[in-house]
Amino acid sequence: MMPAVAEERVAPRVVGVEFPYGHPFGMPGDKSMQRQVLELALRVLAGARGPGTRVDLDVEWPVPLREAYRAWQPKEASPIVKVLLETGRRPG
Amino acid sequence: MKVDSYRFLPRSFRSFYEGRGPFAGEEEPVWAPFEKRLQESRIALLTSAGLYVKRTQPSFDLERERAHPEWGDPSWRPIPAVVDAADLGVAHLHINDDDLIAEPEIALPARLLDQLAADHVIGSAATEHISVMGYQERSLQGWRDKTSGEVIAHLRSQGVDGLILAPA
Q1: Could you give the maximum distance between any two Cα atoms of chain A, in Å?
Q2: Whose CB among B108, B135, B144, B147 lies 3.0–4.6 Å from B72's, allowing a Cys bridge?
Q3: What's the ipTM?
């Protein structure tokens, strides 16, 4: 879900999906999407020729962005986010 | 086509991840060639969604994280490939767990991997996959000192040839 970050961390093989957090293999109930992701990951695992291989899956998340952006977030802010909000600190 | 890595991330959090580069001491590429044919290989999965088997395993320690917000539980859980979805709990304070509880396969597609073995896409699936909880304190000391070594030993004991790591 964050392939650019994986690349920066020098992950040897990366599959990029443009899915919201908590859904690395896709939509609940969508076995076809889940299988696409898993099969691509296996092909990259076995077929990558060297470090720094990144392959992105061209599948759009089938939920409007505004809705998907809210839906993945926890019902209550995580402890560290609460601290950041309370102290006015910026992440990082 | 290039995936937008930050599409679903609040803009104010982007600097927490982007442009940070590799961890100190980990600048060099790592590489282990995959030398077996997939159809002869045993594959395992690792999720960072904080899954655990409710009846037999403790949850990841969310109370300690609530008390110490810069800490995350570095332990790991073996997840049997045959476990029922209803027997899995999710312990993760940073993502909505509704879909994960309803269908853990979206993070740990163990049944799907078994199907790929039945379809001869892979040789076999591991009998136990791996779960960790993805929020960790910045040094990753717990994972470095204990978890990674234990996970590797567990995978090797099963004869695993390759691991799909799927961050949640």
Answers
A1: 47
A2: B135
A3: 0.95
